[in-house]
Amino acid sequence: MSESAVMNQSTSEPQPIYLKDYQVPVYLIDEIDLHFDLFDDYTLVKSHLRLRHNRLSDSKSKTLVLNGVDLQLESIKLDGRLLSETDYQLSDQALVLQDMPDNFDLEVVTRIFPHKNTALSGLYRSAGTYCTQCEAEGFRRITYFQDKPDVLSRYTTTITAEESRFPILLSNGNPVESGKLENGRHWVKWEDPFNKPSYLFALVAGDFDLLEDKFVTMSGREITLRIYVEKGYGDQADHAMYSLKQAMRWDEKAYGREYDLDIYMIVAIGDFNMGAMENKGLNIFNTKYVLAKPETATDDDYIHILSVIGHEYFHNWSGNRVTCRDWFQLSLKEGLTIFRDQTFSEDMLSPAVMRIREVNGLREVQFPEDAGPLSHPVRPDSYIEINNFYTATVYNKGAEILRMMQTILGKTLFRKGMDLYFARHDGQAVTIEDYVKAMEDVSGIDLRQFRTWYTQAGTPVLKVEDDYDAENRVYRLTVTQQTLPTPDQPVKKALHIPIRMGLLDQQGRPLPLSLDNGQPVTDTVLHLTSTSQVFQFDNIPCAPIPSLLRNFSAPVKLELGYSDQDLQFLFKHDTDAFNRWEAGQKYALRLMLGLVRDHQHDKGLALPDEYPDMFGHVLRQEQEDKFLLAEMLMLPSEKYIGEQMEVIDVDVIHTVREYVLHEIAQRLQKVFLETYQHNHDVSGLYQFSMADIGRRQLKNRCLSYLMLLPGYEEIGLQQFEVSLKKNMTDAQAALVALANRNIPARTAALDSFYQTWKHDALVVDKWLAIQAASKLPDTLHVIRKLMRHEAFDLKNPNKVYALIGTFGQRNAVNFHSKNGEGYAFLREMVHQLDKLNPQVASRMVKPLTAWKRYDKERQELMREQLELLLHENKKLSRDLFEVVTKSLKEV
Hints:
Blueprint: H1 3-8, E1 17-18, E2 27-38, E3 43-53, E4 64-67, E5 72-78, E6 81-82, E7 89-90, E8 94-97, E9 103-112, E10 122-126, E11 129-133, E12 154-162, E13 168-171, E14 174-180, E15 185-191, E16 203-206, E17 208-216, E18 222-230, H2 238-255, E19 263-269, E20 276-277, E21 282-286, H3 299-314, E22 323-324, H4 330-348, H5 351-371, E23 382-383, H6 392-409, H7 411-425, E24 429-430, H8 432-443, H9 452-455, E25 461-469, E26 474-482, E27 497-504, E28 514-516, E29 519-521, E30 524-528, E31 532-538, E32 545-548, E33 557-560, H10 564-573, H11 577-600, H12 610-621, H13 626-632, H14 638-643, H15 650-667, H16 669-679, H17 690-706, H18 713-723, H19 728-739, H20 744-757, H21 761-772, H22 779-787, H23 797-810, H24 812-815, H25 821-836, H26 838-844, H27 856-872, H28 878-888
Parallel strand pairs: 2-12, 18-19, 19-21, 22-24, 25-33
Antiparallel strand pairs: 1-23, 2-3, 3-9, 4-8, 5-6, 5-9, 7-8, 10-11, 11-16, 12-15, 13-16, 14-15, 17-18, 20-21, 25-26, 26-31, 27-30, 27-32, 28-29
Helix pairs in contact: 2-3, 3-4, 4-5, 4-6, 5-6, 6-7, 7-8, 10-11, 11-15, 13-17, 16-17, 17-19, 18-19, 20-21, 21-23, 25-26, 25-27, 26-28, 27-28
Keywords: Aminopeptidase, Hydrolase, Metal-binding, Metalloprotease, Protease, Zinc
Pfam families: DUF3458, DUF3458_C, Peptidase_M1, Peptidase_M1_N
InterPro entries: Aminopeptidase_N-like_N, Aminopeptidase_N-like_N_sf, PepN_Ig-like_sf, Peptidase_M1, Peptidase_M1_dom, Peptidase_M1_pepN, Peptidase_M1_pepN_C, Peptidase_M1_pepN_C_sf
């Protein structure tokens, strides 16, 4: 963006920034020395910059543009000379200096007000603790700077504060000096030996409980590990430390990546917009992804902590040592690191279950995003506010692209490509092309067509037809790909799509597809590169049943004319665990969509015996992976069912799914009860192990079915009471079931839960979310009451996500009530949030943006709320303006 655009953007409608307009920075900042003086009412920030003209820049300009937002400028010195107001231009977005020399020093002093910073971007206060969040553009709220990822600098940071209240002063790198000052203040100086972009800067000042440990790297270096948590929560950091050490060892083994500083720190903060932030050597985490003990955290909490701790650690190389040139390349670090943390979690836990959960998230969030008004490529062409592009497309679809690339190259060549990428670009800010080029160089494979995945939005649909020639023992698959038009991309190109597959005979045995060194190959990859291709398999002795897209080898929708019997067969016999689960989901989806059509035409609902029999079959198998079994007993969500319909019929979907759940519960109640009792630990004690997780997940899935039926409330109540103070997984499972029943025990259980855990913020978030997700018709009334409860705070993102986010995104039947109350409520909340925290506001408004998918009455109600947001507010944030205007745009 030009300096004139920066100066004028605050006085006009927000304008897009385009990838095609990228230019290298005219000036580079080699060193920045920061001094922070922290006081209650303000913070003084002195930054000393050493700058030089960038020899790679073609620009003849001698103008320096430094970004700055919500800063009070105190003074500027150029090479020691104090500048007057006539020597620079100042706006609410930037500081601009003209006719600068080729090499110079700049000293800038700013005054900022962290206690007033409700946006939680830059430096802010969280419950008496100072902390930062600088990704994507938070550093410009701290001092004037070229707040771009391609400006890499070496940082030294000195922090001063009152020692009694802020005994711990942290920043990036290694501590090098410290001392005492007058009036009870002290100081600490940190040096980061690695150049980094400003978005990776971090500062924390406060008083914490500390968990410390050591890690010895593969080369024998000893690393100090420190996890800082709020006072009184030191007993909840053990799992985070375990996860960190596992991630460090895994990254050495899987990618040969060793940690590079002497100290690695994690700080848990209660007010945080994101899940966590990978700042070099000083990760700042949302408390929900650090704190865990059996009494307060569920299996899912433990799993998420493992994943997120791993994710931020893996960023040390894929994002920090090698960073992105500009924000359009965001998936270069996030998609890659998501892929790394996914494979880490798969290795540490159940590979099949983790893959199922990854795909469920992709289908329920990213696929609708790809098909809606906010659709964008993994590498967008433009944005108004970069915070809006921390999306499932950039992260999760980006990860799927990396998974496909690994499938195409094979794991050995993919690892070599990663090694070359890190070696070639260490210490650089690079592009997606740089990454793909490393993969091409090690493999010799031309990936030009494959790169289209990064630039083309939309979810491809694969239509498959098969044919078996019994006389010649030839089996053929004809595969056609199509990607529908998306906003700004009406014409789509054919993609390179890897399809992992196998064939099964009528007894469920794998059929050989080819020979490798004389050994039969029963699993292979088809490379679809044209709009339509035919794949032929010779010497197939019988008509096979195809198992396609194994382990979900590409982020596509697959259409193949399986019969009901084929899907039941694959559910029982497929040798690919993911595809066994997938067959059950396809059958359930087909069945429920049929029931939806029946209900819409006033036909009675009838569930065929085959579906409950499928569940009964897998339950009686007592298979080893009970975690996987628990997943196989789940029905597709109401959200996913709706995504398969041209017009989403919220009420009928809910009615049909509830009917199917009750029918399965009724017909299988005996086997559900037996399975529950067999896997239930009456002591209620908790242990984090795969065997115990599997048993808990399976028995709680059975409990969720049983609690739909009269006469089983006592089982749920008993589990709740026994586990309330010692096993949150079991307590929450029982409470969720109770919260969806209109029975006297419901209110008592919710009250008991709150009174027991009201002093633990994360557990209270669970209490809020459980009520917000309730199927009962008075849920919105309950939510409005909870908005006034002592437990809720609109300024805290975790509370907002738990109560408002859960209602809008996970409670379709109540949010989409025909009277439009849910829509009006969300608009009211988004309006208030936009004044406090624009990032959170733009995330909360997302359920309204899918308005075109619903019936005409709901469309009008949802669109009305979006238009009210746009026209009744005097000034929307850039974050919210972009989301609302795009969703209202007519295609």
